[in-house]
Amino acid sequence: MNERYSRQILFSGIGREGQEKIRNKHVLIIGAGALGSGNAEILTRAGVGKITIIDRDYVEESNLQRQQLYTEEDVSEKLPKAAAAEKRLRAINSDVEIRALIDDAIPEVLEELISDVNVMIDATDNFETRMIINDISQKYNVPWIYGACVGSFGMSFSIIPGKTPCLNCLLRTIPLQGMTCDTGGIISPTVQMVISHQTAEALKILVEDWEAVRTSFVSFDLWRNQYTSLKMGKAKFAGCLSCGEDRTYPYLDRENMTKSTVLCGRDTVQIRPSNQGKISLERLATQLLSLGYKVKGNPYLLSVEMGSERMVIFQDGRALIHGTKDLIHAKTIYQRILG
Amino acid sequence: MNKVLFFAHLRDAVGKELIEINASGKTVGELKEELTEKYHLPRMETVMTAINEEFASNDEVIQDGDEIAFIPPVSGG
Questions:
Q1: Chain A partners of B43 at a C-beta cutoff of 8 Å?
Q2: Among candidate residues A77, A8, A70, the one with its CA nearest the CA of residue A41
Q3: Which UniProt keywords apply (chain A) (predicted)?
Q4: A162 lies in the same domain as A311
Q5: In B, which residues are within 8 Å of A180 by CB distance?
């Protein structure tokens, strides 16, 4: 073992044996935004054998404040995040086998990637993808680490199949109007704190120190100086369709996914969420206005100007994205606003 | 009496981090409904609830002196 990892080897939780284990493991990072950048950088520096990172978006100026792998040059070239991340990660550590995919993390794609993965890191910005990760985790018996943040508030929870409750036990349904960084803002320290929780858990899992893995659900608010840690034993739900006895892995089923379609003859994509329910257009309008978006609306719909696109959101969560024919891009815009 | 704590955007909706009310004998679900009406809280059905720092389901009955916390799962990343 070379000098490169000497300080990490010196740490009693890892040691020479732990470093060797880290070297032989594969981590799948889903998302290459703020959480994905930070997780990928730390794990690349730590000398993980293989890292796969998947993302469907491209680098924009508003990412630079917190997405640590990207540069102004990446913005001007409009590089896909996966491609920009791959370039930077390879420059950081040539020992690590980096694989970057410019793709949407839908069930088929993740099922193809999962075979030799030891842990998945959640770096997504929406609950639909998290529920897919959660079902994949249960089906293929691979742990995953939930992480999320908005404003100064962040949270993390390690999900170990057969041991902890799963995300579906906790939520039972996909929250339709989860707060996102595009609606609630975000400061970089919040991101870093979530990343620290996720990567510490990942290292424990990679060195197989299962005793050390945190079983509580952690949440914190860095601005209001709150830190809470919840015991989760009671959250395990026997009837859970993702991890219970009669499991069906509902989120791997196409029927339960957000449907997007290009509207015939128009430069418009329609997005129809899987979980239809009434959303508060008034509250959403107030949030978007305070963020400087141009918003127009009536009791039935809300129209938001977003650069070259315009999104029209209906009360049932359905939306039309005008100005694009790209399904993945349209879904990205939608989930940015509606989580 | 019971202390009820609110996190993230729920705290903004209520206007403070902590309220004291008598919720003893009510279920978590009933308390959620009551607070949703009083403070116009958004989407409480997927908000996680803790009683004395332990996850609690909607059917759990609140006892006198229990500390309740509402933690909304956020999706940013």
A1: 175-177
A2: A70
A3: Nucleotidyltransferase, Transferase
A4: no
A5: 74-76
Listed residue (B64, B33, B69, B70) closest to B52, CA to CA: B69
For the stretch B3-35, pLDDT in tens is 999 999 899 899 999 999 999 999 999 999 999
Structural domain count, chain A? 2
Residue carrying the six token digits 């070297």: A23
**Total domain count for chain B?**
1
Choosing from A252, A282, A310, the residue where a domain stops is A252
Domain edge (last residue) among A252, A270, A304: A252
A chain contacts of residue B74, beta-carbon cutoff 8 Å: 148-150, 153-155, 178-180, 184
Distance CA A30, CA A40 (A): 10
Domain range for A148: 3-252
First to last CA, chain A: 43
**Whether B75 and A175 lie within 8 Å, measured CB to CB:** yes
CB atoms within 10 A of CB A326: 13
* CA A226 to chain CA mean position, Å: 23
Q: Which residue has the tokens 């000497």?
A: A6
- Asked whether A174 and A317 are in contact (CB, 8 A), the reply is no
Q: Which residues of A touch B45 (CB under 8 A)?
A: 173
Binary contact (B55, A232; C-beta < 8 A): yes
Three-state SS string across A192-220, please?
Answer: HHHHHHHHHHHHHHHCCCHHHCCCCEEEE
Residue of B nearest to A150 (CA): B76
User: What is the radius of gyration, based on Cα positions, of chain A?
Assistant: 20
pLDDT digits (tens, 9 = 90+) for A43-71: 999 999 999 999 988 898 999 999 999 99
Residues A131 and A264 in one domain: no
pTM higher than 0.90: no
CA distance A147 to chain B (A): 7
- Specify the pairing of strand B67-71 against strand B48-51: antiparallel
* Domain annotation covers residue B74: no
Mean residue pLDDT across chain A: 92
